[in-house]
Amino acid sequence: MSEPFIFVSSHRVKEGRLEELRALCAEYSDFVEANEPRAMGFRLSLDDDGSRLSHVIVQPDAAAMDEHMKLAQQRIGAALELVDTTAVEVYGEPGPVLAEALRHNAEMGVPVTIASERLGGFVRPAAA
Known about the structure:
By secondary structure, the chain is α+β, with helices and mostly antiparallel strands. The chain contains four helices and five strands; from the N terminus they run βαββααβαβ. The chain has a single domain, classed as Alpha-Beta Plaits (2-Layer Sandwich), CATH 3.30.70. Strands 2-3-1-4-5 form a five-stranded mixed β-sheet. The longest helix has 18 residues, at about 20-35. The chain is globular. The model has no long low-confidence stretch (mean pLDDT about 95). InterPro entries: Dimeric_a/b-barrel. This is ABM domain-containing protein.
């Protein structure tokens, strides 16, 4: 089994935009599930007071993450109207599309962490 590629981002919800964000997240999640059969996992979560959004996506490889960036570009852009990105973490070596987005985030002052060296761990298929 190839190494999964993991992307984690954190965002501060802009004042007065929470309900719009809830609706967009539901639509975004449905879109990814319907259009990205290779995606291994996808989660959008709010903290308890609704001020922070966490986004986690697990792809089979960096190429699948780049494809996600292309397919979901419009929805990602819409989400960025509702939140401010506060941090991005990547586990694996990013492909060219994501690398460009990470460079842009870093230039905007967002802390970007790329952990490309795997020291241990494993992936199990979902339990039946």
